[in-house]
Design goal:
The chain is of the alpha/beta class and 514 residues long. The chain has 3 domains: 244 residues, MetI-like fold, CATH 1.10.3720.10; 146 residues, D-Maltodextrin-Binding Protein, domain 2, CATH 3.40.190; 92 residues, D-Maltodextrin-Binding Protein, domain 2, CATH 3.40.190.120.
Length: 514
């Protein structure tokens, strides 16, 4: 497994590293372009200096992932406005929200160091400059900024390390980065991927920091050779990272995936089908349910697999249960008429939200259904994935069964199953097609009052791709070809056998094409 995982990590390194460097460099340069002029003006104006530094400090208190996520709804609303007003759609997913968030993150060290450096200069220096006839502008450019340069460069070094580290969090907003290793590795328990992502991001930050430290020393010692060496080094690192990206992104379809292994497998299957039809694609993983649906509507994602119950409850806000077939039909019709989204059809299996317990504990307490569980819930702890407790499905369970637990905890899905196995929680929200149900010997509790809707896996195409006959023809053969047993086996290959989602997708494609 180790050799296979390492080879898989190396295979995607050029793309992940190139995307990471492109994002980090763009954010850092934009942050410097904004911060330096603002700091120069602020150093001369106390009324501006204090609010500017206060605002930059406030930005640093916002968790990186939250700041990245906040830009998505802002850009989405702006995209709707510009599309209606000017016919121009702003991409709300991927590079732009990550760029804006990281730009804000980069500003504080540059602002703080530049202001401190300029204000810390000996007043006699400015007096001498003016005594020889320099204008304030000449004094700033010829005397003050060169003297402040080492301190300013120290701030840029700090900003560079912050940006490179925080850029790993851009994966959930659809921007490929070295964080893809970490998020995917955590979900699939591929610790080589997690380690690879951490080491790669750390090594990149260290190399850039050392080169910028060389530039800092060059400014301090007035060494042109050091400055040239630092500049060449930075250019070489950036150029070497970006070369693999040249010509790779244009015209590619975007395949979306949520943040669990089944979605990774299915997105790889979709990419394989498109490649067979001559349609190049890229994948955007670890997207939340609401984000990925909005991205499909906006055209930032071209195709992904969703679940009928998620659309029924979260998007259509329906609480009635007319039956599995009726839900599928009504979901497909609503998607088409409301957004122009094409439902290619059910893949053939259902991945239902269910509550699960350890089999031995459920047997000891004689718990078979959610109705049985309700009597014990006030003395139990429940764990759910990041979304579960904010979803309408959970509200429906609570209302239908009058179920209230003593403790609610949210987990990354991999750790949620381990928490149940280790006894940290008594019940979890599981997925019926998850291979870990068998691996951890779990009991799925039935839902006799139909609080939860059916969750057929459905393949959705964006409004733009719904009109693309080649795209549709490439993906239509997937409809009805994956049964529940096959999907559980595929998931188990990732969970237990530690095979990569891409390898499992190849196995699954072979079964589909037989």
């Amino acid at each position: 497994m180790s050799n296979g995982a390492f080879a898989a990590a190396m295979a995607v390194l050029p793309d992940y590293l190139g995307q990471h460097v492109l994002l980090s460099v763009s954010a850092l340069l934009l942050g410097i372009a904004i911060s330096l002029p603002l700091a120069i003006v602020s150093a001369q104006s106390r009324s501006l200096r204090e609010p500017v530094l206060a605002l930059a400090n406030i930005v640093q208190t916002i968790p990186g992932l939250a700041l990245l996520a906040l830009f998505y709804p802002v850009l989405l609303a702006l995209s709707v406005f510009t599309a209606r007003a000017f016919g121009l759609r702003i991409p709300a997913l991927g590079f732009l929200p990550a760029l804006l968030a990281l730009t804000l993150y980069s500003m504080l060290p540059v602002l703080r160091n530049t202001i401190a450096a300029l204000m810390g200069l000996d007043p006699a220096v400015k007096t001498a400059a003016r005594a020889v006839g320099m204008t304030p502008r000449q004094s700033l450019l010829i005397v003050e900024l060169p003297l402040a340069a080492p301190v300013i460069m120290a701030g840029i070094r700090i900003a560079a390390v912050w940006v490179i580290g925080t850029a790993t969090l851009s994966t959930p907003v659809g921007q490929t980065s070295l964080g893809n290793y970490i998020f995917t590795g955590l979900q699939t328990e591929n610790w080589i991927f997690v380690l690879f992502g951490c080491v790669a991001a750390g090594a990149l930050a260290l190399v850039i920091d050392r080169l910028l430290a060389l530039a800092e020393t060059g400014f301090a010692q007035r060494s042109r050779a050091r400055l040239i060496a630092a500049f060449i080094g930075v250019v070489v690192v950036i150029a070497a990272s970006l070369v693999p990206l040249i010509g790779t992104a244009s015209g590619r379809a975007v395949i979306g995936a949520k943040n669990f292994e089944e979605q990774y497998i299915l997105s790889a299957v979709i990419a394989d089908q498109l490649a067979k039809a001559g349609v190049p694609s890229i994948r955007r993983s670890d997207l939340g349910s609401t984000i990925i649906f909005r991205a499909l509507v906006a055209g930032d994602v071209d195709a992904y697999v969703d679940y009928s119950g998620t659309i029924w409850a979260n998007e259509m806000h329906r609480h009635d249960m007319p039956g599995r077939a009726a839900v599928l039909q009504q979901v497909a019709r609503w998607l088409k008429t409301t957004y122009g989204i094409l439902d290619v059809g059910s893949l053939g299996f259902e991945n239902a939200y269910v509550l699960a317990m350890r089999r031995d504990k459920a047997k000891a307490l004689d718990i078979e259904t959610l109705a049985d569980l309700a009597a014990y819930a006030p003395r139990m702890k429940i764990g759910g994935d990041y979304e579960f407790f904010s979803r309408p499905e959970w509200a429906s369970i609570v209302k239908t069964y009058r179920m209230h637990f003593a403790v609610q905890r949210s987990y990354q899905p991999t750790f949620m199953y381990r928490a149940l196995s280790d006894g940290d929680v008594d019940v979890i929200s599981a997925f019926s097609s998850d291979g870990r149900i068998a691996e951890y010997h779990l009991k799925l509790l039935s839902d006799p009052k139909s609080a939860l809707p059916p969750y057929d896996a459905v393949l959705l195409l964006s409004p733009k791709r719904a009109q693309d006959a080649k795209f549709f023809a490439a993906l239509k053969p997937l409809a009805g070809r994956i049964d529940l047993t096959t999907m559980q086996r595929a998931n188990l290959m990732v969970d237990r056998d530690k095979r990569t989602p891409e390898d499992v997708a190849k196995w699954l494609v072979q079964r589909i094409r037989k």
